[in-house]
Specification:
Shape: globular
Largest sheet: 7 strands, mixed
Radius of gyration: 27 Å
Oligomer: single chain
Distance between the termini: 51 Å
Number of strands: 31
Strand order of the largest sheet: 5-7-3-14-11-12-13
Helix content: 10-25%
């Protein structure tokens, strides 16, 4: 199929023989089913500002909450005095760690991260106490009135020093070490290049900050209304921390105002639940932007040292690497992020020999966790930097060097796992290499907005240098290392209306729209609704990595097909044929020979049909003591070419264009897919140029959107989707692959490569600092 991007560039997709293309729909027909650009059901409400988010919720007798957070990255707590705060007019409750653990507490502590700090605080912003009051300002004043006597300790902020530092946590400072050995560890190449790379602390910075409403239950439990992306895990953790059964905790998922990473900040949800139980009243908490920056997890800052061995033709002989990930104070998802980083440390290249060691360690820096492309993004910037170094050393064009080493289906990863899914990396690279380059500015005056630095940039046109850089990358889909990936969905049909019940949270990735399309495609029903998510439904697992397209979409498809069988079997029996001989298309049911022809509406009249189904992909296994194992269900790949303009005197960078060729398996919604790729590229550009949460000696500096500059519309490059390869993964429902994470992973590396090409500087740190892009005398 051929589709046109919003910038007018032609996006070419290639389907395998017998790919099952959809029948052309009548001209003027509304989008319907898989392969069409169906719009999200909530799009108009969000555009008009009438879509209900958690911050909009209200309840009779509502109280307001505030959380007191530690001003120190590391300190012993000698005393907590809540007397003055509790005595303030309007204050209904003050809670600390004493209300959670021990005989007088409501429950018990969770294993890794306590709901409130008790004897010691381990990072700047860690919750120490919480207050409920009848007015938000009263709650904030009461939280400020809590007296905490601290004994400051020297914070451990350098992950390299964490190995020898005193234990920061009862579980020790090393969360995980993965020593990967593949092939011959003693192998050497004729040419060796070494590089040291540093990746900064990127924050998800969601458009809407955390907000929640907790309502006490008559059975002593609590109901929580919040914008979580993994409600069942949150329910289980809250119940365990508060000593409740899972039946006593119910979570309703409200509108999620953006999620590029982990929204499951239990330091936010646990105090909210505890206060509602303590007061017997509904309690609401809406975080400030500062609290949001302090509370949720960030991308792992990572230090990476590499040695690439190659022969004189540029073929890679061996990759050696040492990866050190700063997990912050608590483990969270660091073990999983490290597994991805170590497994993909050599990139989508054929590497016969590898010696890779990865560590995730604790520090007194803010906690790190799941952010889109976790682990894979950090190593991509490093191994692509190594490919540029190797190309320069050998005098080979950087794109050509990559082409000589690309991975393909049937090759093995350094983990020993054979790539069985489609891996058209060579075709992707060829597509971006062949795409036309953007025109250079014409002779004559140059508009200010064309200069690096934006409209107020101080640069001169004569100092601007253009660079072109290439990068290849990969991500895994679903969980890894034996994670039990499963999702359950129910499809109900009453009359000509279908309803989907599935606990997969719509975070902007388009699952709700996909579920509608699946039911439309399978059952031929136009009106399809997706029910709100709560924990009374069976678990569907967290979002991220395209897993809901796979497991939740697969569950919806199976349930819809079961309903289809219930619908078609009676009709087929009346004509003495099997249901498999009937087809549904454009709202009509027809037999193979044309004898039977009726509408879906007529066949459903007076019927109520429903079915529940699960989808569980094939199992994976943990990496063994040598980093070997079939740890991943599926992989997705992309090639990007970045074109940048760099002011060689000021070091400012403008990304002019990013060309994308991506392995998508199958296009399920063309418009939505393009949007996801464009958004992923922009997040990657932010990581490359502007986004870095500054932490000095463990203290977060300027935790606001002025101190943490996100890319704006002026920073957004032209994104040209030059090729989408639709080579379906046969083990995935619909054959589709993850879409949005791959551009996030690859874009920072491509931008860095382009800046290297423009300046000749090594550019080994992200985000790229101006001094790294200045071309000195």
């Amino acid at each position: 199929m051929t589709d046109r991007g919003t910038d007018g560039a032609t996006a070419i997709t290639v389907s395998p023989a017998g790919g099952g293309a959809r029948t052309a729909r009548p001209a003027g027909a509304p989008p319907h089913g898989l392969g069409d650009s169906l719009s999200p059901a909530e799009a108009e409400a969000k555009a008009r500002g009438t879509f209900p988010y958690t911050a909009d919720l209200w309840a009779e007798g509502l109280l307001w909450a505030a959380v007191l957070r530690s001003p120190h990255p590391h300190a012993a707590i000698k005393r907590i005095d809540t007397t003055d705060a509790a005595a303030m007019p309007g204050v209904r409750a003050v809670v600390t760690h004493e209300d959670v653990g021990g005989e007088a507490g409501l429950g018990r502590l969770v294993t890794d991260r306590p709901p409130f700090a008790s004897e010691v605080v381990r990072y700047h912003g860690e919750p120490v106490a919480a207050v409920a009051a009848d007015h938000p300002e009263t709650a904030r004043l009461a939280a400020a009135a809590i007296v905490v006597e601290y004994e400051e300790r020297e914070p451990v902020t350098d992950p390299e020093k964490s190995f020898e530092a005193p234990a920061l946590h009862p579980d020790g400072n090393v969360i995980r070490h993965i020593p990967l050995r593949h092939g011959d560890p003693a192998a050497t190449g004729e040419v060796v290049v070494e590089g040291l790379y540093r990746i900064g602390r990127q924050d998800p910075a969601p458009i809407g900050v955390e907000s929640g409403l907790a309502v006490p239950r008559p059975d002593g439990g609590v109901e929580i209304y919040t914008a979580t992306t993994d409600p069942h895990t949150d329910r289980d953790r809250i119940a365990a921390s508060l000593g409740l059964t899972t039946e006593q905790v119910k979570i309703y998922v409200t509108g999620v105002p953006g999620s590029l990473g982990d929204r499951e900040d239990l330091g936010f949800q646990l105090p909210l639940a505890l206060l509602a139980i303590r007061t017997g009243s509904p309690v609401k908490l809406s975080a400030t932007r500062e609290e949001s920056f302090l509370g949720h997890a960030h991308r792992h800052p990572t230090l990476l040292r590499y040695w690439h061995h190659a022969d004189r033709t540029g073929k890679i002989v061996k990759v050696e690497a040492q990866l050190l990930m700063d997990a912050g104070a608590y483990a969270d998802d660091s073990a999983e992020a490290l597994a991805a980083a170590v497994s993909f440390a050599a990139g989508p290249y054929v590497v016969p020999n590898a010696v890779i060691d990865g560590w995730a360690v604790r520090t007194n820096n803010p906690p790190a966790g799941y952010v889109r492309g976790e682990g894979a993004m950090q190593v991509c910037a490093a191994y692509e930097g190594q490919m540029d170094r190797l190309a320069a050393q050998l005098g080979i064009d950087p794109a050509e060097l990559r082409a000589r080493n690309v991975l393909g289906t049937g090759d093995a990863l350094p983990t020993g796992q054979t790539v069985t899914c489609p891996a058209p990396v060579a075709e992707l690279l060829a597509a971006v290499r062949e795409a036309p380059l953007p025109a250079l500015p014409k002779d004559g005056p140059v508009e200010d907005w064309l200069l690096p630095g934006g409209p107020e940039g101080a640069g001169e046109p004569g100092a601007v240098r253009r660079g072109v850089g290439y990068a290849l990358g990969m991500v895994h889909m679903l969980g890894a290392e034996g994670t039990d990936e499963v999702s359950t969905a129910t499809v109900k049909v009453e009359g000509t209306v279908a309803t989907v019940l599935c606990a997969a949270v719509e975070t902007g990735q388009g699952f709700a729209t996909l579920a509608r399309q699946i039911v439309q495609d399978v059952l031929g029903i136009e009106e399809v609704h997706v029910a709100p998510v709560d924990t009374d439904q069976p678990p569907a697992g967290p979002g991220g990595r395209g897993r809901h397209t796979w497991v939740s979409g697969g569950a919806v498809e199976r349930a819809a097909k079961m309903v289809r069988t219930q619908l078609l079997q009676p009709l087929a029996a009346n004509f003495g044929m099997s249901a498999e001989l009937l087809s549904i298309a454009d709202g009509k049911i027809t037999s193979y020979d044309g004898v039977l022809s009726t509408t879906v509406a007529e066949a459903l009249e007076g019927k109520e049909l429903w079915a529940t189904a699960q989808c569980r992909p094939h199992p994976t296994e943990p990496l063994d003591a040598s980093g070997q194992g079939d740890a991943f269900v599926g992989l997705a790949f992309a090639a990007l070419r970045a074109v940048v303009d760099v002011d060689a005197e000021l070091g400012s960078v403008r990304v002019v264009e990013v060309s994308v060729a991506q392995d998508v398996g199958r296009v399920l919604n063309p418009r939505q897919l393009r949007t996801r790729i464009e958004a992923g590229v922009l997040q990657g550009v932010g990581a490359a140029l502007t986004e870095h949460l500054r932490v000095v000696r463990g203290e977060v500096r300027r935790p606001d959107l002025a101190g943490y500059p996100l890319p704006t519309a002026l920073d957004a490059p032209d994104v040209r989707i030059v090729r989408l390869i639709e080579e379906r993964d046969v083990v995935a429902p619909f054959g589709a692959k993850a879409v949005s994470a791959v551009p996030v992973v690859v874009a920072p590396a491509a931008v860095a490569a382009a800046v290297r090409a423009a300046t000749g500087r090594p550019v080994n740190r992200l985000p790229i600092r101006p001094q790294s892009a200045v071309v000195g005398p």
